[in-house]
Amino acid sequence: MQNRVQGFVLRRPCLDAIASGGNHGSRSWGEPPRPRCLPKTALHRSDQVSFPAHRNLGHRPSTLGSRRPLFFLAPARDNKSPRRSKNPRPSRAGSVKESDYATTIQRHPEVQKAAAQLRWTGSWYTVFIVVDRYSGRPIDAQFREELLAFMAPYRLMGHDIEIQAPYFVNLDIALTVHVLPNYFQSSVKRSLMETFSNKDLAVGQRGFFHPQAYIVRIDDNGNTNITFGDGQSGARLPTGDENITATYRSGIRLDGEVGAGSLTVLQTRPLGIVEVTNPLPAIGAASPETRDQARSQAPVNILPMERIVSVQDFETFTRTFAGIGKATVATLEIGQNLPLIHLTIADRNGNQVSPDSILYTNLFNAINAARDPAQQRRLAVASKVEIDSYEALYFNLQAGIWVDYRYRSDLVLSEVKTLLVSAFAFEQRTFGQGVTAAEVTALIQRVDGVQAVNLEALYLTGTTQELKSSLEARLAIWNSETKQALPAQLLLLNSQDGVNLHQVIS
């Protein structure tokens, strides 16, 4: 008598041997049984064994298939014996490994993180699952029963499950925080506690120690890369389509620096507002730090340690302040043995910083907050601090260039001008740095296609055209006549109409 089940033709004696795991032929330990008594045409469709099925075959129930089958027999072809399938297809979710249990239980809506471990308890294998519940809620008996019922369809036969509460390890973090004016210390402390928590914050973000936190990195090209956890270090991103919601802020960087009266339209128009304008120019905008800027600023950031003790600390602290591009400090004698600490600054974009701007006010307040009040009373070295924007100086040049006949003269002259403008730009120069004729000549001769150069003129903008061997820029000084401090100068190339280059044909 034969029983036909799901497209298979199985003979009862061999079916009993498969279901009971009988030994048919020699095999090694752990290897699936090999039903040698099956005929060549016994199995016709291997894809039918895809889920546990209990069928009454006349004398007792037998199990066909499994959630995670160890092997399949491929269909019989060309009158040959069935062969083992290379790629068995699991069709239903189940838990076999420790990571399977942790991943499965995290699908429960009240579980935010879980870790599993399989141990031999002396009489049986038990899977211990440590569960971190949302909002820090306790793992009580009722919740344990709920999780056990949730995991029952997925556990492997022969594995017991035990739900445990996590054991949290204390981590001490010491922070030194300077609270800005008009802010309460209690509110700042509460915000910091929420930021370093493992909760979902009200603003839509997650705490620093939340398992579903992520890392955002921006490369040199402005591309944003988001890194999620791998299931062990942070939660793994759930599988699915359109299951991520991103909320981000966009800025226009330097394009946002517009003049007074330029802003007339709001992005959102609340009721009651008819017209809007900006009475003051928008300043202080800056692009993100480039890789080279970050490398140069990183060692400087740790020098002052947010404290100003020496004179050099004033310059270091100012250079690392957000929005400041350049800074230099000078100690000026103003009489009566009372020195003046003078700072010359420029913003990130090379513009001057107005004393009425927010950047100037924030910098001045930050410096006073970082100074030691006791030192101010004891020592005269920190008695007075003055901050001024730099004085910009521009110079012009004129040169005749012999161009190699193998190069196009217009391209060579254009490349020379581009190199000069870049070399004498704001980013490349420092306060008090001069310019020499030899430096200009050496830069021009670096360009491919230049055979020789004759520097004909080098002079400050607004002065008589002549060839000077060098142009000087000074640091901050004290003017005893006007009783005022003069800021440091920054010597730059007049890129608009201060570069006059022509080809010399001999």
Detailed description of the structure:
With 506 residues, this protein is of the alpha/beta class. Helices cover 20% and strands 23% of the residues. It contains 10 helices and 20 strands. It has helices spanning 12-20, 98-105, 141-151, 185-195, 291-301, 311-319, 358-370, 373-378, 409-423, 437-445; strands at 2-5, 8-11, 53-56, 61-64, 111-120, 125-133, 159-164, 215-218, 224-227, 324-333, 339-347, 385-389, 391-403, 435-436, 450-460, 470-471, 477-479, 484-486, 489-493, 499-503. The radius of gyration is 38 Å and the shape is elongated.
List the helices and strands and how they pair.
Layout: E1 2-5, E2 8-11, H1 12-20, E3 53-56, E4 61-64, H2 98-105, E5 111-120, E6 125-133, H3 141-151, E7 159-164, H4 185-195, E8 215-218, E9 224-227, H5 291-301, H6 311-319, E10 324-333, E11 339-347, H7 358-370, H8 373-378, E12 385-389, E13 391-403, H9 409-423, E14 435-436, H10 437-445, E15 450-460, E16 470-471, E17 477-479, E18 484-486, E19 489-493, E20 499-503
Parallel strand pairs: 6-7, 11-12, 13-19, 13-20
Antiparallel strand pairs: 1-2, 3-4, 5-6, 8-9, 10-11, 13-15, 14-16, 17-18
